[in-house]
Amino acid sequence: MDNPKLQFNDDQKAVIKREIKQAYNAMATLLDWVKNDSLREDMKETLPKLVDSYMKTVKETIGFNGEESEREKEMTESIGQYYQRQIANLEQALESQQSISSISANIELAFKKIDKWWNIEGFNFIRDKQITAGGIAKLEFGFMLNSISSSYSATPISDKKQLKTKVQYLEEKGFKFTPKKRGYGLDLIDNDHNRKLLEEMIKKAFPSAKIWSYKNHLRQTNKEKDDHYILREVEVSISDLSDIENLSIEEKQFLFDGDTV
User: Fold this and answer.
1) Is residue 147 part of a domain?
2) Is residue 60 one of the residues assigned to a domain?
3) Domain that includes residue 189, residue range
4) Strand order in the sheet with 228-238
5) Is the pTM of this model over 0.90?
6) Could you tell me if residue 109 is inside a domain?
């Protein structure tokens, strides 16, 4: 039986390499958190889903034809239709209001906007989001450089000269990261410099924001010089919900860390 070898173009090879790297980094992060007893309840769902997402792109790129059963197709279509209805309802509710300050009808849409801003300008993951009875937004911003970025390209080789990695973008803003080390994800160092930059970035986006606390943990490696306290979470409140309405988000695309021209 004929079993020919497959041929892939440079863009396809780059996509496969990128997604497998990201899946590996997500699994390395999961292993690190399990080893250090720092895996939180919410992340036990998030990290495996990230790995599934990366592998889905790999399967699509190599032409994997695993077909869903009729029942699986039915469920997928139902879930997709449900979310489409939810988004349509929220967008319609927003159009009928003069301001996002009437947040009770638009809370999911407001959080979606904050998520998008943090994905593009920040660190991709928000641990918790809520609105208090007094109309204050409480957020727990997390830090995960190995998660999906705000936008990514299916033709990375073709786009590469115009794009930069998310880490390069953040480094240009002045953020300092842990040294690259095999088997360890890239993390944001907890120091006064990075905290100051975070506060400036958050206050620029949300002028009424107040930072209440930072959480960190010690990332230990096999070399003490590579050990660092890294940021895990920053707790923020936004007292004026119109800050969310007025938030301007500039669309950006990023290469994935480790890609080279």
Assistant:
1) yes
2) yes
3) 10-67+98-246
4) 124-131, 137-143, 228-238, 209-219
5) no
6) yes
- Domain for residue 183, yes or no? yes
Encode pLDDT of 14-67 as tens digits: 888 888 888 887 787 888 788 888 787 777 777 788 888 888 888 888 887 776
Crossing angle of helices 107-121 and 70-95, in 10° steps, is 100
How far separated are the first and last CA of the chain, in Å rounded? 40
The tokens of 239 are what?
């007292």
Contact predicate 188/143, CB 8 Å: yes
Dihedral of the alpha carbons of 235, 241, 242, 245, in degrees to the nearest 10: 70
pLDDT per position as a tens digit, 174-227: 999 988 766 667 789 999 999 999 999 999 999 999 999 999 988 777 777 778
What distances in angstroms separate CA 43 from CA 2, 38, 47, 106, one per listed residue? 44, 10, 6, 26
Give how many domains the chain has, as a whole number.
Answer: 1
